[in-house]
């Protein structure tokens, strides 16, 4: 990773954190427990990938950062809520997330469920503050986010994941791709599209960014599965080796490590190609795709 | 309850059910489990109080039913999600709701959490389809619903409820009122306000309806607490006598039954008074307040 890209990511992280801090109620707001718990998970050191993609997409379309801050913050709230609920004992039962105790370990299961609910709800409260453009109104923003995070995509993917657990039969490749598209690619793509929409993106460019997002999202999940096999829990900040231990259907389990790495590279190349219409303005989006391919945590 | 009011309620229930059926994905939509579970809880025979209030408020403001169907359906999705999550073992741990097994008893805890999440998410997807008026756009609708169901109101009330459980100390009257306002009155009031907003209500009348909603909401919760003491589980369709068994702070526990009944009547009178600016058009809203005061389940 080049120095300039690394400082770009750091600077964007700070911008996102500042925005989130402004949108979230203060920790002492009554009732204090829930507002403290919302902030605990939201400021636990996430990479802010989704909001950074929103901001980069807005800039690739000639828009400005300020107007993309609301959707950027909203998608991070959705992502964080989904992690809190996925970590619950009745789901993936994880004690560690981003190297820290998960929400239910720290606050108890009841508060963890409610904290997820509250982050999901505030995502829409924040999103409603996005300025409309000539082509897109708040209705379009809300439809975009609700669809991507609803029962047919983000939540649907987790349902299929949950149902596949403990099963002896590995999923077929199309089934696995469907889960990856739902669980990971849909929200990543919505993050990008929402950023672009705040810049009044043309339908043609929105379509190109959708291809970029889908490819990036699938690559992201393939790499995640590879890292679960090859890295330590310490490095990942979450429990490694879990997929194999639970006999989970993953790319490495279905195709082996080498073929999985090739697939991730192929998808990343497809993401790059989708950026052609953006020329120089798409540079950051291209760098993000490259960075995700080569990450080791 | 007069025959004409009773058939009004039945007819409105059918209208709401038809709208919800149209907005919800078919049960066979992939993945089937979640869509079946969403429909199981949503069509479990609820009284549809909140959506009926949305429709009645729209009519009281000279609007029409059709345009209030989206917010009416959205508030029912929020109400149903909150029941599913409240019933979880890590919260109130209830096996019975509306006389049927609760979501986690039927589908397991993981799917119940995700079903609640999905209903919460689709509420905003549905709400985004509400036609804007001269005074109110989709942003205003989304802000209204997200605020009422967020961490400072609906979810906040459940947090305080959860924290009060198992405590030997009864809450103070102002604390109890704060919980009731958050947990019950906020969403009821938002249901009414959203319906009125689809009819392009004036700020003055919106304020009057807010007073009506707050009073009705508090009365509703006082009556709920009374019924928990005086009725059987069979009659209520949920576990009766639970508040006393868990030493929960309620109006009857703090003030006794007689004083609680008087308070419910006083609040209902206040709701009626708030309807004066609506004249004959506010008749249904008045009848609903009367019906809630005199209900026995």
**Name of the CATH superfamily of chain A:** Farnesyl Diphosphate Synthase
Q: What share of the residues of chain A does DSSP label as strand, in percent?
A: under 5%
Q: Give the helix/strand class of chain A.
A: mainly alpha
Question: What's the multimeric state?
Answer: homodimer
Overall geometric form of chain A: globular
DSSP helix count of chain A? 15
CATH class of chain A: Mainly Alpha
**Major sheet summary line of chain A:** 2 strands, antiparallel
The Cα radius of gyration of chain A reads 18 Å
| SSE sequence of chain A, one letter per element | HHHHEEHHHHHHHHHHH
Largest interface: A-B, 51 and 51 residues
Task: Kindly give the count of domains of chain A.
Answer: 1
Question: Approximately how much helix is present in the residues of chain A?
Answer: over 70%
Task: Indicate the CATH architecture of chain A.
Answer: Orthogonal Bundle
**Total beta-strand segments of chain A:** 2
Low-confidence segments of chain A, given as residue ranges, are none
What do we call the CATH topology of chain A? Farnesyl Diphosphate Synthase
Could you characterize the architecture of this molecule?
The structure is a homodimer of 297-residue chains. Chain A is mainly alpha-helical and 297 residues long. Chain A is built from 15 helices and 2 strands. Chain A has a single domain (3-294), classed as Farnesyl Diphosphate Synthase, CATH 1.10.600.10. Helices cover 70% and strands 1% of the residues of chain A. In chain A, strand 1 and strand 2 form a beta hairpin. The longest helix of chain A has 28 residues, at 203-230. The model of chain A has no long low-confidence stretch (mean pLDDT 93). Chains A and B meet through helix 2, helix 6, helix 7 and helix 8 of A and helix 2, helix 6, helix 7 and helix 8 of B.
